[in-house]
Amino acid sequence: MELIYTGKTKDVYRQPDGSYLLRFKDDVTGTDGVFDPGANTVGLQIEGAGRAGLRLTQFFYEKINQAGIPTHFISANIENNEMTVHPARVFGHGVEVILRYRAVGSFRRRYGAYCSEGQPLDGYVEVTLKDDDRHDPLITESALEMLGIMTRREYAQLEDLTRRIGEIVRDELARKQLELYDIKFEFGRLGNDGRIGLIDEISGGNMRAYRHGSAVAPLELEQIMLS
Ligand SMILES: Nc1ncnc2c1ncn2[C@@H]1O[C@H](COP(=O)(O)OP(=O)(O)O)[C@@H](O)[C@H]1O
Ligand SMILES: [Mg+2]
């Protein structure tokens, strides 16, 4: 097994059969010990965070695969904190797609003069570049095309997949009396035909969930969802 990438929350290995193995760590994004799904630094470590994140990821990926949406997911080994996936070719150096049902986090910081905290946003989609040094800048569809990162057709597919996957996650949370405020996804091109599929993880660290108007921490979210 060859280590090909050391990320903030996972290590990525290439296996002899060509598949990738993601090992989930107990590192959580945030600043100064406070969780923030939008942060691009590791802010804290929580024992058991890696395994809980993997279990929730497996839970959602099985639902998403069942819905016929392409994903990289092959299997999960909970005991070892590992997930085996199909390798994907990412857009540029990687993009993140954010789906917003309510105004919180960076949306609120950017557009605070025009919206109130928690205001409904009706499934608004935006894309950022994965670029820690430049603080993951927001990018428009036109710039993505102009810079050769993705085509307009791919952008439309990305938006459509994001809304469909978001609905699956939102509905599952609602069954547990949780409300999904926003969520971050990653996508890549899979297989020889380059069809777009969901990659990376879907854990408590990628979303903001609320219960009775207050934010639910990642580990607690995972406990609620998996019990
Ligand atoms: N199927 C896949 N193929 C290629 N890269 C992937 C796949 N799934 C996830 N990745 C990438 O692997 C890395 C996972 O580690 P992570 O700690 O999340 O990294 P980061 O600090 O870049 O967010 C991410 O960069 C993610 O884009
Ligand atoms: Mg990541």
Question: Would you kindly provide a written description of the structure presented here, covering whatever features stand out?
Answer:
Its EC number is 6.3.2.6. Pathway: Purine metabolism; IMP biosynthesis via de novo pathway; 5-amino-1-(5-phospho-D-ribosyl)imidazole-4-carboxamide from 5-amino-1-(5-phospho-D-ribosyl)imidazole-4-carboxylate: step 1/2. Keywords: ATP-binding, Ligase, Nucleotide-binding, Purine biosynthesis. InterPro entries: SAICAR_synt/ADE2_N, SAICAR_synthetase. By secondary structure, the chain is α+β, with helices and mostly antiparallel strands. The chain folds into two domains: 2-88, Phosphorylase Kinase, domain 1, CATH 3.30.200; 91-217, D-amino Acid Aminotransferase, Chain A, domain 1 (2-Layer Sandwich), CATH 3.30.470. The chain is built from five helices and 16 strands. Strands 9, 10, 11, 12, 13, 14, 15 and 16 form an eight-stranded antiparallel β-sheet that branches. A five-stranded antiparallel β-sheet has the order 1-2-3-8-7, covered by helices on one side. Strands 5-4-6 form a three-stranded antiparallel β-sheet, with no helix packed on it. Helix 1 (49-66) packs across helix 5 (218-226). Adenosine-5'-diphosphate is lined by residues 5, 7-10, 12, 20, 72, 85-88, 90, 94, 186, 188, 199-200.
